[in-house]
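User: Second chain of the day. Same drill as before.
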Amino acid sequence: MRLRLSRRLVAPSLALLLVLLLVLGAAVGVLVNRALLSGGNHSTGTHVVQVAPTSTAQGQLAEAVSLNVWRTGVQSLTTTYDAPRARAQVTITLGGSVPNTPLKVSAAQELTRSLCLMALQALWTSDVALTQTAILVQGPAQDIYADVTTHVYGEATLTASAAQRIAWSTISADAAWNTYDFAFLQSDFVLND
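Assistant: Same format as last time:
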C-alpha cells in the first residue's frame, strides 16, 4: 500500500509545524529569561547561578553578567553595586573538582581569565555609570589538611580610564588580562602551607 500526500495538504502542515516550533522556542526562551531575572537560584544540571539585585542598576548589572557567564561552570554569582561611588563587584564561584595537575591548573587559569573578561565586558557595556569594577573568581582548592575549600582563583580590577581603552568586542582574555589595573592569578590549588 502506498500513501500519497497532496502538496496542498503537506505545505500548510509543515508551515503550521514550523510556527508551533517557533512559538514553543520563544516560550522556552521567555521562561529561561524570567528565571534568570527573578533573583533566585537557578539550576540547569550542575550549573547554578544566583543573582540578588537590590537596586535597578544592580539588577541591570547582575542580568548582564549572568547572561554573559551562563553555562561556564559557574556555581554561584553575586553582583553588588555601590551607587554613590559607581563601583561594581562581581564574585563568581566555580564548582567541580580541585585543579590538581598542571593541565587542570592551566585550564582553571584560562577559565578565570575568560570569566573576568566576560564579566567586565558585561559591566562596562551595560550603560550603568561605573568608575571601577572588581571581579573575584573562586573555586575548589585543597587545604593543608586535604579538605576541599573555596579559594581565590583570580581577581581583576578595572577603572573607567582603563576600560575606555579596551575594544570589548574584539579583545581576547589573554590580551585583556594585561590591560587591567590589577590582576592576580592563582598558580597552585593544592595548598601545602
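Confidence is low (pLDDT under 50) at residues 5-51.

User: Great, on to the next one.
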